[in-house]
Amino acid sequence: MWGEVTPAERLRSVTRRNVDDERLAAAAADALAGFASEPASLVVACRRLLAYHRAHGALWWVCSRILAAPDPAAAARTAVRDLEADRTGDRLGATLPLLDEGEVVAVIGYTTTIDDALAERFDVEAVAIRVDGDDPVASLRRRRGDHSVRVVDAWDPVLERTARLVISAAYCFQAR
Fold it and tell me: Fewer CB within 10 Å: N-end or C-end of the chain?
């Protein structure tokens, strides 16, 4: 896919990605594998990547895993596989309870993982809350599921019937 592109250019491309891109960590691991034969360059590459995306927890995990590994290239491949096999959305969906009539699951920081959790739960009515620092409209446009999700403001009366509040970890880091 990358052809004759240098590892530095691949990293630059990954670094410029949007912070809320959930594929960012896997793409970064793939790009960092290009620095595996040069430990000093790998450290600098991780520092630069994290300087641009300080609040991206998965990137911190990827960088620490690759830097601490005896074989950074193998660690990068393993990190990509682990990220792609993540079942957090399935687990979250399985833990959501059956709701009474009119109850909702309110979401702050709507992500692909949360969308995956709601994909099979047509019995759950979900609302995405618009709060300072997070407008869920862009995330809802990228949804994979067919489940209807309304966007509401923090003062909306529907929130009085909230059975569960789901807050994305990514939002928690951005809110600071």
Answer: N
